[in-house]
Amino acid sequence: MTATPNSARSKSGHASLRTTTARAASAALTLWHGSAAAHSFGRIYNLPVPFWLYVYGASAALLLSFLILGYFMTAPRAQAPARSVDLRHRRWVGALRRLRFTRILGWLALGLLLLCIATGLWGSRDPYRNFNMTFFWVVFVLGFAYLTALIGDLYAAINPWRALAHLIGTRWHGFARGRLRYPERLGYWPALVLYMAFIWIELFAFVRPFKLAVLLGLYSLITLSGVWLYGAGAWLRHGEFFGVFLRLIAKMAPIDYVPGHRLRLRAPFTGALQGHAADWSLLLFVLFMLSSTAFDGLRATVPWFQLFWGDATGLIEGWIGQKPIYAYPWLRPYYLAYESIWLLASPFLYLSVYLLFVAVSRWLGGGTAGLREVALRFGYSLIPIALVYHVTHYYTLLLNQGPKIVSLMSDPFGYGWNLFGTAGLLRAPILPDPGTVWHTQVGLILFGHIVSVYLAHVEALRLFPTPRRALLSQVPMLLLMVAFTAAGLWILAQPIQSGRG
After folding, report:
1. Same structural domain for residues 220 and 243?
2. 237 shares its domain with 128
3. Which of 146-160, 162-176, 271-285, 485-499 has the lowest mean pLDDT?
4. How many CB atoms lie within 10 A of CB 47?
5. Is 448 exposed, middle or buried (0-12, 13-18, 19+ CB in 10 A)?
6. Alpha carbons 386 and 329: distance in angstroms, whole number
């Protein structure tokens, strides 16, 4: 059959469209590969030894630490109260109290929050020249979280939304006392929902200065509404997710600080042994701290990208009539929905795996505690893993972008100011050697898992009737830690290995 000129032009148009789509898909893949590389080092790094040796070495170190703990850690030592040094009556603490140091920091934090909103609304649209992007995402979300793991829960005293509620309360008497009693069944679900929304926005919303200012304003309204409804104490404890997140991180700190109640030195990480997760919502919050960071790393890997766009099952091609990569612009919203579902489901998937291992541990350990109690008792032992995952994935961003806050302080709006004479300082990023980054990541992940093995073993000695039963109960938990270690190292290594020939 001879093609007519119109049909020839039609075929030519379809071919041109297909070529254009393919080029767009290729460009998208190139951009994705670049972002995957940037997620780790930003340039190709060949592992000095095969990857499996790192996994075997880390697993052997975990097993050795488990055996040492089983031999030396006894039930009386686990039951003994943690040693601490009370600092409340030290002279320097009294001086800070008289200066109302935490109140000053609280007002400073509120001023920085308002500055982030103002610079986003009226400052430069360039995220690298606007104060709010670097200060919020890098200095606060990353830097202050890591600082909290060292100095304790200072955020509880300087929370800017607490200061804002207090400021409103000076004009609106009774504002922060609340109108309703906080429902016990709500638990930490409000904080978990807001935390999940925050991570989704961070990963998928393509936030720029103006949008960040709007989001901070919206979050402020949500927080103030919660304070008005349930009172500052209840809402800031259960619903303000930054407070919940940082309070959990502070359990790793050698400083135990509760504003107005205690200030003492203690052994690092032992805060996780003082109390346990109150309910399922707080356990899921801990698991989401872990799963969201793992998901962020996983989505930058080649296997994850190919899982959808490679279409090994052929289901997508059967649906749209062509290979998914050629329909990249059209399928992009579906891919966003696909990733969003996995992100939001991740803590529940982690919970199912965690409960499986806990159930076996409970069976091996004996005792009378139910599955819920055992699961909640061991929940805090996962916080060190969540913390080191967070550090290994993002500390290079803190090094690269964090120092620039010094120059941005002199020109927060990006108008070309030099208020404090620092506008030209520390603009060059700190780029550590790729080998240093990788081995630091390996060391941190291994260290975090060893700490978790220790915390879980101490908790087991407290929970189960005999040391032998406690040791047996930790075999499944050890296997879970080994699996987490291998998975964490694999995710970190994928962008590296994807560049290898």
Report:
1. yes
2. yes
3. 485-499
4. 16
5. buried
6. 35
Asked if 145 and 246 count as a contact pair (C-beta separation under 8 A), the reply is: yes
Question: Domain check: are 102 and 57 in the same one?
Answer: no
Parent domain of 424: 43-72+338-501
> Dihedral sign, CA of 293, 296, 297, 299?
positive
Rg (the chain; Cα; Å)? 26
Amino acid residing at 156: A
Number of compact structural domains in the chain:
2
Sign, Cα dihedral of 296, 31, 496, 429: negative
Residues 6+ apart with CB under 8 A from 396: 40, 41, 432, 437
**Model pLDDT for residues 195-222, shown as the tens digit of each residue:** 999 999 999 999 999 999 999 999 999 9
The position carrying tokens 């000095």 is: 48
Alpha carbon distance 480, 475 (integer Å): 9
Which tokens hold the place of 292? 């969201």
Q: Which of 221, 246, 274 is the last residue of a domain?
A: 274
Q: What share of the chain is helix, strand, coil (3-state, %, to 5)?
A: 75, 0, 25
Distance (Å, whole) CA 196 – CA 180: 25
Residue 283 lies in a domain: no
CA quadruple 147, 148, 153, 156: dihedral positive or negative? Answer: positive
Q: Kindly report whether the global pTM for this prediction surpasses the value 0.85.
A: yes
Q: Do 357 and 434 belong together in one domain? A: yes
CA distance 39 to 494: 10
Same domain, 359 and 490: yes
Last residue of a domain, one of 229, 256, 274: 274
Exposure string for 101-111, b = 16+ CB within 10 A, e = fewer:
ebeebbbebbe
Measure the CA–CA gap between 350 and 295, rounded to whole angstroms.
11
| CB-CB contact of 377 with 463 (8 Å) | yes
